[in-house]
Amino acid sequence: MFKAILLNKSAGGFEAKLTELDDGLLPEGDVTVRVDYSTVNYKDGLAIADKSPVVRKWPMVPGIDLAGTVESSDASEFAVGSRVVLNGWGVGETHWGGLAQKARLKSSWLIPLPGSMTTRQAMSIGTAGYTAMLCVLALEKHGITPEQGEILVTGAAGGVGSFAVALLAARGFKVVASTRRLTEESYLKGLGATELIDAATLAVQGKPLGRERWAGRSIQWAVIRWPMRVRQ
Ligand SMILES: NC(=O)c1ccc[n+]([C@@H]2O[C@H](COP(=O)([O-])OP(=O)(O)OC[C@H]3O[C@@H](n4cnc5c(N)ncnc54)[C@H](OP(=O)(O)O)[C@@H]3O)[C@@H](O)[C@H]2O)c1
Question: Ligand 1: which atom is nearest the Cα of residue 181?
Answer without folding.
Answer: 41
